[in-house]
User: Which sequence fits this backbone?
């Protein structure tokens, strides 16, 4: 938090809070160190710092900006209220990047501020998605109106001035709706967080979105309905400037958060600029997110490597084409999966894939079969499982809502780790059980050894892979949260329990918390020792660089037609047949 200088004129206190959400026991998910910094906070900070520099409240009226990411910092309401009181309540609490699962927590954070008469505004995917797809009341938006929390739908670039001025005049509008007017990003303030905030996450990396929007139409996706399907992008000049600003504070590792960087129309200019900056000596390291056809874009994979990409997240989602068609994810061609993954492997880049469980054709047995096929036949390093969830803002949610189909009323569990609606073939219990089982099916000690062998053979950095495997193999089992919500050393406080759940006494809470912490860390230490030992043995083994298995085999001329990937499902056979027809030379 910035220090308030004593001054006779009140200074506007802009408090940016990114809420976390509650775990299954009702406690806020918070860590000593988070895994990944919040890009929503970085985006808002960049825009707010620009407002402060331009003195949008008038010449000489200072704006102090405080940043709190609740996943790694406790929201000390009392201290924040005292700070606001010192400035005669001149300020705004901005609840930033609030997702549906964070909405109940965001309201709980807002309550004491509203009771004290402090202006509060909320933005992010929940309110934007609801206003884009629903009637302006659903889901739960009435709670904001009742509490006097202002709803901001759309993007803050070019609009935060107005919100700050309205808050300063204590005249926030109940709703700001810019959903039909998404801003261009060229020359917009770029995401930025001062180092003192970035240090609350591991690995000193920051983030930026080089663009927004995706051309595809996946029915479970909220992004296209909030950020649109047209590619809006930052210029290479803006990206260079943000890299330099970060490097000035010693940060050169970035997560580019575009949901599909391969469809950012400026990808090549941006990568070329990053390549030039690396040549200058800035040790840029990048993680990007792409689609399964990215390898078909000439030069994309190679330039990604040259620009410093070390990890790539791919929206694989499923290996059963029937499920992909059902989700309108027709662009995912399973016949291309191996080519795409091998293209990244050829560059020594770690591949991570999102995999959704609970599509209509899924059953516990089909999921077990598909995971085994992936292990055997796809050269993929890391997989993350999610439950198919009707996220507010998605077409799936809109359809169920319109049809009056029952969905769980507790938004706190819309975190893609919980089951929120019925499935045609699995009971809720079966679905929940196979979600948990999937993690242990994939991350077996034997398969992790195979992944390490493949890494040694393909030049993937083994140390980095070990770190990721530790997190993905243990977080669900030990912490009961998804690795994307994970961190180091879980922190809890009795006062941070969901108000709907009984507050525990100190004597019950602290001894149990201490014992849980010791138990979990002993188990974590054992997992680390096992994996590191396996990595050392495998790296030193004679002939390790020549390791080969089914997954690493080059795609055959026959398109691998005997693989289980294609023979085990009707859709798989049909996909292969279609791919063969497409590959046939024209008569
Ligand atoms: C990067 C990312 C992450 C990162 C970092 C989190 C972050 N928010 O930066 C990581 C990997 C940690 C992550 C984790 C998760 N994520 Co995520 N993530 C994203 C992603 C790809 C980009 C976020 C981003 O930077 N967007 C760009 C910023 C600038 O947009 P924005 O946040 O909407 O903010 C703009 C406006 O909304 C507005 N605004 C926002 N707040 C405010 C406040 C005020 C007062 C005002 C005026 C304006 C304003 O102005 C901003 C600038 O224009 C989004 C998808 C997307 N395209 O946004 C998913 C997304 C936000 N994530 C999602 C989910 C579900 C999760 C997880 C729950 C998954 C899981 N189980 O682990 C966790 C939750 C962890 C957490 N604590 O946040 C969902 C949320 C859907 C929903 N309706 O709730 C999304 C939309 C993806 C999806 N599947 O649909 N995520
Ligand atoms: S490819 Fe990804 S971002 Fe694009 S529509 Fe599908 S899920 Fe959404």
Assistant:
């Amino acid at each position: 938090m910035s220090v308030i200088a004593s001054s006779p004129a009140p200074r506007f206190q802009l408090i940016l809070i990114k809420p976390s959400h509650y775990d299954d026991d009702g406690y806020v998910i918070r860590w000593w160190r988070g895994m990944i910094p919040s890009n929503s906070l970085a985006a808002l900070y960049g825009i707010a710092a620009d407002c402060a520099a331009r003195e949008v409240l008038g010449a000489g009226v200072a704006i102090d900006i405080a940043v709190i990411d609740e996943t790694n910092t406790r929201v000390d309401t009392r201290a924040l209220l005292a700070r606001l009181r010192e400035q005669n309540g001149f300020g705004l609490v901005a609840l930033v990047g609030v997702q549906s699962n964070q909405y109940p927590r965001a309201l709980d954070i807002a309550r004491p501020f509203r009771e004290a008469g402090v202006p509060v505004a909320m933005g992010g995917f929940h309110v934007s998605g609801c206003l884009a797809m629903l009637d302006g009341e659903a889901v739960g938006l009435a709670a904001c109106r009742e509490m006097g929390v202002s709803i901001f739908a759309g993007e803050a670039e070019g609009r935060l001035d107005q919100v700050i001025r309205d808050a300063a005049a204590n005249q926030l509008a109940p709703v700001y709706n810019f959903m039909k007017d998404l801003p261009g990003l060229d020359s917009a303030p770029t995401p930025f967080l001062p180092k003192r905030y970035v240090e609350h996450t591991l690995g000193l990396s920051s983030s930026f979105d080089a663009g927004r929007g995706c051309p595809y139409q996946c029915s479970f996706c909220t992004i296209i309905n909030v950020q649109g399907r047209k590619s809006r992008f930052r210029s290479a000049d803006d990206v260079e400037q943000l890299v330099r600003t970060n490097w000035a504070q010693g940060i050169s590792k970035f997560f580019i958060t575009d949901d599909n960087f391969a469809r950012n129309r400026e990808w090549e200019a941006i990568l070329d600029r990053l390549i030039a900056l690396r040549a200058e000596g800035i040790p840029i390291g990048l993680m990007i997110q792409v689609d399964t056809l990215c390898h078909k874009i000439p030069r994309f994979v190679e330039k990604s490597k040259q620009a410093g990409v070390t990890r790539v997240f791919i929206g694989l989602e499923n290996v059963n084409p029937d499920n992909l068609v059902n989700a309108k994810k027709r662009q995912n061609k399973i016949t291309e999966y191996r080519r795409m993954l091998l293209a990244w492997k050829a560059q020594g880049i770690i591949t991570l894939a999102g995999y959704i469980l609970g599509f209509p054709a899924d059953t516990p047995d089909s999921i077990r079969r598909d995971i085994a096929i992936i292990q055997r036949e796809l050269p993929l390093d890391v997989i993350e499982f999610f439950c198919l969830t009707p996220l507010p803002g998605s077409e799936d949610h809109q359809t169920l809502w319109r049809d009056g189909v029952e969905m769980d009323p507790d938004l706190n569990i819309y975190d893609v780790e919980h089951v929120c609606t019925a499935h045609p073939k699995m009971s809720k219990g079966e679905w929940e059980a196979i979600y948990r089982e999937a993690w242990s099916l994939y991350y077996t000690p034997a398969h992790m050894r195979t992944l390490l062998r493949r890494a040694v053979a393909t030049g993937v950095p083994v140390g980095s892979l070990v770190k990721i495997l530790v997190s993905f193999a243990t977080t669900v089992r030990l912490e009961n949260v998804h690795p994307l919500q994970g961190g180091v050393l879980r922190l809890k406080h009795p006062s941070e329990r969901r108000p709907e759940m009984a507050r525990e006494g100190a004597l019950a809470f602290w001894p149990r918390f201490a014992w849980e912490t010791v138990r979990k860390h002993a188990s974590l230490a054992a997992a680390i020792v096992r994996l590191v030992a396996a990595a050392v043995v495998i790296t030193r083994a004679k002939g390790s660089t020549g390791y080969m298995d089914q997954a690493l085999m080059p795609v055959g001329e026959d398109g691998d037609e005997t693989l289980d990937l294609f023979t085990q499902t009707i859709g798989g056979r049909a996909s292969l047949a279609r791919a063969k027809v497409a590959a046939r030379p024209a008569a």
